[in-house]
Write a structure and sequence with these properties.
By secondary structure, the protein is α/β, with parallel strands linked by helices. It has 14 helices and 13 strands. The N terminus is likely disordered.
Amino acid sequence: MEDMNLVDNKYKLPDVSNYINDERLLNSINDSKLNAFISLTNKNKINNISFEDYPNCLVYGIQRSGKSNFIENIIVNILLKSTPEDSKLVIIDTKRLEYNSFDELPHLLCPIISDFSKSMIAFNKIIIEIQRRYDLLFESGLKTIEKYNTMMHTTNNLGLPKIIVIIDDLLDLVEYSKNETIEVISSIIQKGRQVGIYIIAATSNVSRDMMNINFINLFSNRVCFKAYSERDSRLLLNKKGAEKLGEYEYFFNSSLNIYDGKYKSYKIDDKMVIALVDYILHQWPTKHDNFNLEVSDNHMVESVSSREEYDDPMYNEVVDFAIQTGKISASLIQRRFRFGYNRAARILDLLEERGVIGPPNGSKPREVLIKSVNSLNPENNDDLDAQKTESGVNNKKSNDNSNTTTIFMLVIIILVIIALIKSFFS
């Protein structure tokens, strides 16, 4: 098989023209930008939409509307445009059905994830990576990952790869643990873009009891395949119409309003996918260094135990800060006390467990439920209980003394009356 050079000269990719007869798509593949996805417009033209412009995306649609094909389209675009040194993937597929052909890709940070516990570990490791990248930018005096990578390349060092987190299906994670899933994904969306970390999440349900509107609005870009109802269409697009779409058809809605409109997802031949993956595997070893997701059988027990035993020397200071501000979040704790995300998140868990703050509220800070530290101080409560007990004992003693005096006076009165009666009859 002959090879063709793409924009990236680090390695060669298979001649996909054997599987794609569409000249428009071949031209798109040779474009320099890393595309998030490519689609056909109403005028039957190829439309490229890049990660740089549209980093985080919520993909919605009923079953068999084209969501999985759309995400496969994204993965293929990444493989055609970048090496494993340039782009990394984290794929979460709880159904274990859609992406088996990509399981050995060297672009993967870890094997395809199908377990909720491992999903949470992966999310937390990504948050740690986000913080690490911000620290690197701060130390280098640069503001963007592109400038940082340019600096690294000029000294023949590797830059920071883009990391694309793909979730299919988001609903499965939310059903397992709604608050935990929404909070950790919200954090990645809000902080990841500037350091080259993006999320693309597919879901078949956007009902309010599963995902609140604040969380949905965090995704500035939305792809809406056929919807269950006009209500769902309005929720995602602010207009009706998605409920009437055909297979692979979708509406794209973004904060930039540039590419907004109706499209059709491009269907790439399965033979091309197999050939592409096979060729890459012959050039690059599969390794998932520094991203171990192995969990012991008693992981959940250990997690609960460690959470109960964990305390922080700065806990009281954080409580004071929360009471002063009236709101609290992991990012606020990080900025105020210069903690890492993990430490801030653990303190946040402690605050919730001890009744200081309320539950997660999408991307908004947590509500502080107390007005002063005294209301949660166990020693004060013990002193108060002791005071109440002592007061009760004293009251009881006082009542007992009063009753004794009354009885004594009644006895004296009776004796006086008896004496008077005897003297009267004698």
